[in-house]
Fold this sequence. Notes:
- Helix 2 (about 60-70) crosses helix 9, helix 3 packs parallel to helix 9 (about 285-295) and helix 4 (about 110-125) packs parallel to helix 5 (about 140-145).
- Helix content is about 40%, strand content about 15%.
- The strands form three sheets. It has a seven-stranded mixed sheet with strand order 2-8-7-6-5-3-4, sandwiched between helices. Strands 9-10-13-12 form a four-stranded antiparallel sheet. A two-stranded parallel sheet has the order 1-11.
- By secondary structure, the protein is an alpha/beta fold.
- It has helices spanning about 25-40, 60-70, 80-95, 110-125, 140-145, 165-175, 195-210, 265-280, 285-295, 295-325, 355-365, 390-405, and strands at about 45, 105-110, 130-135, 150-155, 180-185, 210-215, 240-245, 260, 330, 340, 365-370, 370, 380-385.
- Pyridoxal-5'-phosphate binds next to helix 4.
- Pyridoxal-5'-phosphate binds near residues 50, 113, 114, 138 and 259.
Amino acid sequence: xxxxxxxxxxxxxxxxxxxxxxxxxxxxxxxxxxxxxxxxxxxxxxxxxxxxxxxxxxxxxxxxxxxxxxxxxxxxxxxxxxxxxxxxxxxxxxxxxxxxxxxxxxxxxxxxxxxxxxxxxxxxxxxxxxxxxxxxxxxxxxxxxxxxxxxxxxxxxxxxxxxxxxxxxxxxxxxxxxxxxxxxxxxxxxxxxxxxxxxxxxxxxxxxxxxxxxxxxxxxxxxxxxxxxxxxxxxxxxxxxxxxxxxxxxxxxxxxxxxxxxxxxxxxxxxxxxxxxxxxxxxxxxxxxxxxxxxxxxxxxxxxxxxxxxxxxxxxxxxxxxxxxxxxxxxxxxxxxxxxxxxxxxxxxxxxxxxxxxxxxxxxxxxxxxxxxxxxxxxxxxxxxxxxxxxxxxxxxxxxxxxxxxxx
Length: 408
Ligand code: PLP
C-alpha cells in the first residue's frame, strides 16, 4: 500500500441517538452517484438534480466581486447584514395583507433556506410534538422534524389533485399533539401549486388550531401557470407563521447558500441565538450578492423572467415527450422544475415501481432520476428539467423508453 495513504476508521463507532435513524439526503445521494459514474467515464444525464443549470446573473457576481475588493471578509451579525434584512423585509411587506409590515428584526438570514427550515423545526418542535407534512414532500422535511425529536406525520395528498392536500385531510390527520404544518407551494417533488382558496382554508385551519405554519416558498417565483400565492398574502397576523425563502432557485444561486426565515420577533431571536451556536452568519460575500439580487430590481426581475421562460420551454418539451406514452401518468407542474412520474407499472418482485425504474434508467439508459421513496411515494420517480434543453429532451426520451421496457 502507498505509505502516504493512511486508512483510518473510527473504532466501535456507534452514531449517537441524535442521528441513529437519520438517512442521508436521497436527492443528494442520486447526484453524488451520477457524478461518480460520470467520473468513471459514463455519459450520464443527470435528471436527479435540484438546482437550475443557469449561471448566476452577471450583475450578482459583479456585486460579489466588488464586496471582496472592498474587504467584506469578516463575521457579520448572526442574523445577517441589515441592508439585506431590510431588502427582504421590504419585499415581504409588499406581499403582506393590508396593514401588516415585516420589519428587519423579523428576518434571520441563514446558510441556505435549508438551514432556515432546520432552525425553525429545531426551535419550534420537540419530543412528543407531531408535525403534519403534506406528502410527497421534500425529503429533508421528514428528517428535520425527526432531528428535532418530533414526529413527522405524512398526510398523503390526492394524486388526482397533484398530490395536494385539503384542509379537511389535514384536520383528519391532526391529533391533540399536532404542533405544526409544513407547506411547500410550488412543491418539490411534484411542481404542484395550491390554489388560493384551498390555501386560505388551510391557513384558517392552522390558525384555529394554533399550529405553527412553516411555509417554504423557495419556488414561488418559478411558476408557469400564473403567480403562486404566498401565505403572507393570506394570514391576518403572523403570530404563528414562519415563512422561508431564499435566492438559490429563482436567481440560480444554489452554491452561494443564502436563505432566510421571516418569523415573529421572539421566534426570530431564538432562531438567531440557535444559529449563533451552529454556523454564525451566512457567508458575508454571499449576503452582498443576495443584496444585489433583491435590490437591483430591474436586472433581478429580468433575470428571473428569463429563467422562467426557458424553464417553461423545457417543461412544454417534456410534457410533449411523456404525453406521447399513454400509459405514463404524471403531475403537470405549475411551478418549480420537476416532473413527478407514476412508475407503478414498473413494480416487480416486491420492489416498488420507483426503485425499479430509477435503477433501470441509471444502469441501462445512463439517466439519473430520484426514486419516489425519497418523498414517501415509492411508486413514483422525480425527474428534473433544470438542465440544458437538448439534455433534458434526450433524458426524458430515455425515461419514456425505459418505462416502456418495464411496463410492457
Ligand atoms: N426547500 C425545498 C422545497 C427545496 O427543494 C430545497 C432545495 O432543493 C430547499 C428548500 C433548500 O434550498 P437552499 O439551497 O436555499 O438551502
